[in-house]
Amino acid sequence: MNVQEFSFDEKAKTELTVYLHEEKSKDACVEKRPFILVIPGGGYSFCSEREAEPIALNFLAQGYHAGVLHYHVGKFRSFEASLKDAQKALTQIHQLALETSIDIEKITVIGFSAGGHLAAALSTMAKVKPSLCILGYPAILKSFANVMQIDAPSLEKCVTNKTPPTFLFSTFEDNVVPIENSLLYLRALEENEVPFEAHIFQKGRHGLSLATKRFSDRDEMIDCRFARWFDECVEWMELNWAKESTDELPKMLSQWPIRFLIKEPENRTLLYRYFPNWQEKSVFKIIKNFSLQQLTVMLPERFAQKQCDELVAQLVDSRKGETQ
Prior knowledge:
The chain has helices spanning 53-61, 79-97, 114-124, 142-147, 180-191, 229-241, 249-255, 258-261, 265-274, 281-287, 292-298, 305-323, and strands spanning 2-9, 14-20, 33-39, 65-70, 102-112, 132-136, 166-171, 196-201. By secondary structure, it is of the alpha/beta class.
């Protein structure tokens, strides 16, 4: 393992620590590895060590590169400065990708509590964003920013269709950050058609981190059900990064929600050719969550299976043309 540290502000002790796999041979054909940027919580008062290196090392064990950001907290607390720390960290990771096996297309940010607040800010407010975002019991609302004594907007209002796909986990019983923070953020993702996966566990206090025996100093911080979030998020990342199989592409396109298909300009042109009335907002709102395959059942006289197959074939050809 190759450990490197990059200092951003010596006085405030802000820095990025990266943990890189050392490839066995420079001549070996090594695949690029994803990078996970970990942002610990602590209410902008401190950086929780339970949500820092242990998280990074767990991702490292999964074959990913990882890094931990220590940002402006305590007497140096400043949302603006902290967001700049996160942006500097992302820039540094991009630079490292030029000389290491970091896959620049697969950089994920994960943040916990206040770190989740910063991770969400990086994913919504920054010009350069991570490819995926993972939020653990995040603080989101303006009211909570006031509690943390920082000047920050309500982040659910900052979500756009440029926000990266998001994985969120929390608990209904969170005794510090009300579940409302997560629910309003998820609602904003849905309204902006940002893909997401959410796991809201009923039981569990705030700040559980990995929730396993090896990383918990008290019994109430151990929760085997909550601990499942880690394996679930790894599976979710791999799902998002999976390469499309040419054989599976027609099936995938026929079963995708129309709201995702229509995002691509080439797809939109083809879809409007078959269904010109989809350009009307009132009509599109009704059909956007259906797939083309579902429409063959709902509208067999208007859109038969043969027409569906023809349209899907055109969508496949269009997609192949983009990659050539």
